[in-house]
């Protein structure tokens, strides 16, 4: 506000100086006294304006940075809070694009732009007060510019809002495509899908570009029209002021300049707040998307304190007449009245064709989704009555594709149990057959493993995932095809770790490779959402039903054991896939919604957290490659838009002509200033000519602004 008041005050002093130059002879004492006095005031106001402008920027930017930090925190916290069904409906790339793009828009809109808008409105009202004090009639005439300015700003905001929403939507979709392409780059390359993914990204960008151009068009149109009106009122104000002097209603020409300069400064800064207001409008739209997620309380709330705590469970699991269908697949029922009991310490294997409901059954135990009907109980208590945090604390999951983060090995394990001691960590890593290979790493348990554990083999990642699961000492263990993506050697080591992990726990094993579950206490066969068979391996083989057919298909009967040949074929197939083989095999084997939901849930916000090593790495790149980056300039960017050269040239020409506006106004003011020392008729004729000049400048400003923005 202080910066806003200082500008009209400067206009007041400038008007007083103009009056001194017109009224007093240059060699008189009054001239020197008044001139020096006003110059000192002018310098004082300039210094004060510098100080308040600095604090305006500093304070708003400081508050902005703190708000953005909190907003990022709350958005990520809310993302992790959402249930699996919500993630099924929202693409991970869109969510991370929102985290980056939308919050950046909010940061641009709530920083110094708020201060600019506040200063503009303060300047406007201060200018009105000053101008009415010095000449109310001329001020009343000039006041018409203010409501027109506000109407233009409101109309501009209305026109921009719809196009901005659509622009953000398409940018988010483009970000989703880019993230999917980058994270799955090996798969894209393996299938020669580069052109397809780039074209998809380009299509979304093209849609967003169209709405961005519409937004820019309305911004340029309204800003140019404002300057057109401003120049009309400027010329009209000068002519009316000259008329007041002619009829004797006004005796001091300096008051004309005070009123006109004050009103124009006020209106001018109202016009200048158009770009900041555009940023604020975009920030408001972006914030609506962010807060929609932040304010959403999921049906299954991991932060809720409601429900019983299950501190000492036995591990008894019961499914009674459970029916279920995924929220985003209402037309396909996944489970149709299953009944299953798992006793404490028992190992139960779930088998069947892909999509039959095995992983869904295990997923319902952790309440990633709510069931449609029936009940799921642990130790006789419905899981809906158990606190969700407590429920998931007693259940451990080892998936086919382990989700490791770009932390150290110790930090990855502590995600499951933050309070675990180093001694206990070593103990569980030995149980998971992971301790020996960890000790061979450069920094042992403090070794960074890279994003997704890319610096480790598949078997090593799986053993760390097993150790992470064991860290919380779960009473119920879910093994979701934990060895299906491994080669024979890694499978043997990991299977041994899984056998150790299953001791003393109720264990649910989901497997396609039946050789891994022959020793299970009970095997449950699923078919199209129904349980069709139950029993041990020997019992089901003798039965000659669905399970026996699965066994025959995999040639696992004692007389036809060809597992070694299968492993050779698998290895040969993997090698032929070359660079993208791992991603292809994993993608082909991970086919059900439960597993995909868990992957997305664990990977959503890893990129938000960066270690000190990451920061040092980025700094080293900037230092080492400074010379290389220095070879590029802004011209390099424009070279990518050769097809837009005609618009670039038009924009540069328009910018040049707009740059001539203020010099033209200055020359016209000199022309007018001299006329106040002439006779009344000559003064009126000069001011009328000045009006036409200002109208011409206004028309040119409007045209050049529209073309320049385009």
From TrEMBL:
It is a multi-pass membrane protein. The keyword DNA-binding does not apply. Keywords: ATP-binding, Membrane, Nucleotide-binding, Repeat, Transmembrane, Transmembrane helix. One of its GO terms (molecular function) is ABC-type oligopeptide transporter activity. Residues 317-553 form the ABC transporter domain. PROSITE patterns: ABC_TM1F, ABC_TRANSPORTER_1, ABC_TRANSPORTER_2. The chain crosses the membrane at residues 39-60, 114-134, 140-158, 225-244, 256-274, 647-671, 691-709. It holds the Pfam family ABC_tran. Belongs to the ABC transporter superfamily. ABCB family. Multidrug resistance exporter (TC 3.A.1.201) subfamily. This is Uncharacterized protein. It comes from Panagrolaimus davidi.
